[in-house]
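During the reporting period the student researcher (J.K.) took over the structure-prediction task from the postdoctoral fellow and processed the backlog of single-chain submissions. One of the processed entries is reproduced below for the supervisory committee.
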Amino acid sequence: MPYVLEGLVTTLNEDASVNLAPMGPIPTLDAEGQIQELIFRPFPESRTYRNLIAHPEGVFHVTDRVLPLAQAISRSFASTSVDWLPTKTIHGRLFPDACQAYEFRIRNRDETGQRMVLTAEVVQSHNLRPFLGFNRGAHAVIEAAILASRLHILERNVILHELDRLKVLIEKTADAEGRAAFDLLVHFIHAETQQTGNHADSARDD
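J.K. obtained the following structure tokens:
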């Protein structure tokens, strides 16, 4: 299985506002271990895909913050409240609370499958602050976020069972931000599955 690096992607909307989306690209490393290429697999209906087709540049961010991930998944992230940082090489924006950021340009597109395959070249990298890592509670939030992104695939009872299992880790090990992020995802999952029945539309934007 390929190595998938979970993070956040910023792209620009038609009105030049910033779209922040969870994304799990496959990175390619150079001889020095630096990311030189990213392979994205967005769904064709996603905002990120539409933005990258219109403007094939963006920024991939690695962060140790789980609340922005939960907010992006649940469509509750307020981009207008963020003091975005300027990019150096592309026309885009940097998420200020990331640890590392990678400006990229799309070089190749494969639109023959259900998931689009976009191959991007990293043209500028940033080390914004140290990566502090994740505890078990943060990992539980990430797993809950993945469940929230798969509402259109997984059975509702499977999702709720997994949430119950993850809740134990949250109660034992999560900090205040982890608890807030998990509660946001749980509320979102319940609202989406109750509204649409057994399955819901995917919230994931990759």
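The committee noted the following: The radius of gyration is 17 Å.
J.K. will present the remaining backlog at the next meeting.
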